[in-house]
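User: Hi! I have a protein structure encoded as tokens and I'd like to know what sequence might fold into it. I'm fairly new to this, so please keep things simple.
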């Protein structure tokens, strides 16, 4: 029998933690062995390399600028007046309606290019059931917050023909490469109106 009693650990009298022996294999994998001592970083305002070029690509062959101090030079707006900013504008503060208009215009523009390049007929709605193969136009989207995969691909139809979205079944395609926001034209069947089985993919 051991004459030494086991010490009880209390908040007032805590039991000392066991220390790892130098011969113990666990000492090699302790946090101390993987945490090298480093000097604390300086404050950003006290940095010594302010304005220093740390990387460059290519070489500049003696740039020069000559002018008459700006006299006689009048700047002109580039592009249509309705597309130019005439007052201060907060970046990334666009209205949702304006963003929708730009995206819809982009789908229509690339849809016309797809139709001419691949000699396609008129596009159908992605929401209407169709037993025969139809051609639809839209933007690739994801039905979840994660990464795009074969089970999460949806097609957001264009405003002129559809105005909705539908999940895509890509199992009949031999190969494909899609990303969220991509404008594509698809050929497939939508027998139930709830899922489109894609048989052909048209890209720009």
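Assistant: Happy to help. Inverse folding works backwards from shape to sequence: for each of the 204 positions I chose a residue that suits the local structure. Here it is:
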């Amino acid at each position: 029998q051991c004459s030494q009693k086991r010490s009880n650990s209390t908040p007032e009298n805590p039991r000392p933690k066991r220390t790892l022996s130098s011969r113990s294999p666990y000492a090699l994998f302790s946090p101390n062995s993987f945490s090298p001592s480093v000097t604390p970083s300086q404050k950003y305002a006290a940095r010594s390399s302010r304005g220093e070029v740390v990387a460059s690509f290519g070489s500049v062959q003696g740039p020069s600028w000559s002018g008459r101090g700006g006299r006689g030079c009048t700047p002109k707006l580039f592009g249509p007046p309705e597309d130019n900013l005439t007052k201060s504008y907060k970046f990334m503060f666009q209205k949702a309606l304006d963003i929708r208009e730009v995206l819809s215009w982009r789908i229509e523009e690339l849809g016309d290019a797809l139709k001419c390049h691949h000699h396609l007929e008129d596009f159908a709605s992605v929401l209407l059931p169709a037993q025969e193969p139809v051609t639809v136009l839209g933007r690739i989207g994801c039905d979840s917050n994660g990464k795009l995969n074969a089970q999460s691909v949806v097609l957001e139809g264009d405003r002129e023909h559809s105005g909705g979205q539908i999940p895509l079944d890509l199992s009949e395609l031999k190969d494909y490469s899609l990303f969220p926001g991509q404008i594509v034209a698809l050929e497939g069947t939508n027998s139930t109106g709830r899922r489109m089985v894609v048989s052909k993919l048209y890209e720009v």
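A useful reference point when you look it over: Helices lie at 31-34, 96-118. Feel free to ask if any position seems puzzling.
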